[in-house]
Amino acid sequence: MASAALRLGIASKGRLMDQTGDYFSAHGLTLKRLGHERGYHGAIEGLDDIEVAYLSASEIAKHLQLGRIHLGVTGEDLIRENMADADERCHFLARLGFGQADVVVAVPECWIDVANVADLEEAAAIFHRQHGRRLRVATKFMNLTRRFFAEKGFASYRIVESLGATEGTPAAQTADIIVDITTTGTTLGANHLKVLEDGVMLRSEACLVASRVADWSAQNQAAEQRLAERLLA
Amino acid sequence: MAAESVMRFEALAEQAKGIMAIFGRAGYEHVAPAVLQPADIFLDQIGEAIRSRTYVFTDPDGQELCLRPDLTIPTCRIYLERNPRANREARYAYNGPAFRFQHGKPDALRPREFRQAGIESFGVADREQAEAEILALVQEAVRGAGLRGFVLRLGDLGLLHALLEALPIPKRWRRRLAASFWRPDSFHTTLRRLATPASPIADASVAALTRELDPDDREGAEQRVGAYMEAGQLTFIGARTLGEITERLLAIAADMRARPLAAEVVQTIESYLTIVGSPEAAARDISKLASEAGIDLGAALDRYSRRLQCFRKAGAGLQHAHFAADFGRQFEYYSGFVFQIEMPGQGVAGQIAGGGRYDGLIASMGAPVDVPAVGSAIHTERLLAAREGA
User: Fold this and answer.
1) Are B320 and B278 in contact (CB under 8 A)?
2) Does the structure show a pLDDT above 80 at A3?
3) Rounded distance, CA B305 to CA B285, Å?
């Protein structure tokens, strides 16, 4: 590694970046970008032994997984989606109280016979006999979905990867049900979908996360401690 | 592993040559299915669980492809391609790489790239005979390669289906139990749930609607459900039809009225699943269980006994065979006889070969009729390692 400094991953754009910046400010810390305004390297004023890496929210999860950054601020949903063994590779230091989003299973409202995941299994069995295929689940959370349904004992489904406008897929019949994030449920309702009773997979929010597989020199541990003292005060 | 040593590569090639010669002499035609396969077929037949252990990717045309995780389904595709009407017997043999993602570090016994040598027999109407042929041939192949001291684990999903058929269980519950058999936890949850009174529908208005539906008047029931949705201004979207939703509500209504599964029925199923022992002793235990439960497993038990006779005649050694009633839960597509050749006490590394009957698979892949099918594959790296360890 060229640099031995403690590396902190921060979202490089969008609401998550703004809210992270606000959170740092509220704790008396100022994030600044180095070089030009859209550069990807930064620093924290007054904490010279920390390098800030501006990354996309899901890249932060991948970099934590590989130990390329020591710390990161990103949504728990993205960490758990990108890492099957998140608790082995990472340590969730704190939930930061912003970026709340629930990852939920939603089905058409007109499925009045389906209230929970167990109902889904039985509806899927009838569906398979009628249509000769499994129920299709549109989602970008392929791993979370697979783990959740495996725990619940639901197997008769196929995932259709969906990277945008997921909530419109049942009406368009490109999928039958969805797994997506929701904050208020308004978008789901507008698309004639309802959340299953036991269909909340994860109540996610932004977290400060440490990589267990990064190189933790004594100097980095000290830097992490100084940062955590300020951030979590 | 970046590469294999020359010695290992040559030893595997040599071993495969011997295995394929045995398969060839027995009339199995050598086929070479494509390494790249459409992901669809595997996801449909085996389910999403396979994604976590298969290399699935999207090609530049947006098609989902995978590196084949085993060679059975690719070989079925060859059979279907050559016999679209699925009305002919065929016997195929193959040897080639298969690919599986390994969580954590892949090692010599859980490689992510390994070679499978196997045989598949399609369309042979005499099922027990075909099963004996496969079992004897695979044993001959591993023995020919030099494997000694292996044991045979046997199972029979046909017996389980016969047991569920014979017990007093409503058809829709039987279907549910059969569908969850290959997921043991889910099977036991379903069994326990059916043994307790059905819990009422939480939504009061849906519960009221469900109570009013007349099971003998499908059309009327469907109209009522449609009217309910209209009154509630529920927009109808998706591929599920009003008929399907009605069918399921009627099933819920029937569950509410039905008496829960009797404790003796649950007990019989659970006792059955604990049966283990030599193939002959297991047969005796199964008949005893059936007569105690007052049910007739006649035809399925006859097939079981006939299969053992066929095995003996075909020279498939049964002196180290062990039957387990709950064996056969690894793949949803197995439908009857299942087996595994194991080196005792070696865990996964000792699982040298496995196989079984999968009669529904070819039809669900698009054949116009069900095709009797049975096959087996040898994990050739494990076979080599087990021989070297011996």
Assistant:
1) no
2) no
3) 13
**Lookup: tokens for B163:** 């047991």
Tokens 């030893």 belong to: B11
In this predicted structure, what is the pLDDT of residue B4?
65
Angle, nearest 10°, between helix axes B127-144 and B298-314? 40
Contact between B381 and B111 under an 8 Å Cβ cutoff? The reply is yes
pLDDT at B199 (0 to 100): 80
Give the pLDDT confidence of A76-88 residue by residue, as tens digits. Answer: 999 999 988 899 8
Paired strand residues for A72: A9, A209
Per CB-CB distance under 8 Å, the chain A contacts of B229 are 110, 112
At the second CATH level, the architecture of B151-184+262-342 is: 2-Layer Sandwich (3.30)
Q: Which of A175, A190, A172 is nearest to A109 (CA)?
A: A190
Residues 6+ apart with CB under 8 A from A220: A4, A5, A6, A70, A214
A149 touches chain B (CB under 8 A): yes
Neighbouring residues of A151: CB distance < 8 A, sequence distance ≥ 6: none
| Ranges of chain B whose pLDDT falls below 70 | 1-5, 109, 390
Show the CA angle centred on residue A92, arms to residues A89 and A96, nearest 5°: 150
* Nearest C-alpha neighbor of B206 from the set A50, A161, A111, A211: A111
Q: Which of chain A's residues have a Cβ under 8 Å away from the Cβ of B236?
A: 108, 110
Q: Are A82 and A62 in contact (CB under 8 A)?
A: yes
Compute the nearest-CA separation of B45 from chain A (Å).
10
DSSP state of A166: G
Contact B245 A111 (CB under 8 A): yes
Quick one: three-class SS letters along B329-342?
A: CCCCCCCCEEEEEE
- Measured between CB atoms, which of B47, B206, B235 is closest to A112? B206
Q: Nearest-CA residue of chain B relative to A154? A: B186
pLDDT in tens, B231-256: 999 999 999 999 999 999 999 999 88
Give the CA distances from residue B226 to residues A111, B203, B232, B233, B244, in Å, rounded to whole numbers and listed in that order: 11, 17, 10, 11, 12
To test the contact with chain B by mutation, choose from A107, A113, A119 the residue with the greatest count of B C-beta atoms within 10 A, namely A113
Q: Which domains are delineated in chain A?
A: 6-99+205-231 (3.40.190.10), 101-204 (3.40.190.10)
Q: A-chain residues within 8 Å CB-CB of B183?
A: 153, 155
The CATH number of the structural domain formed by B1-150+348-356+370-390 is 3.30.930.10
B202 and A153: CB-CB below 8 Å?
A: no
Tally Cβ neighbours within 10 Å of residue B258: 15
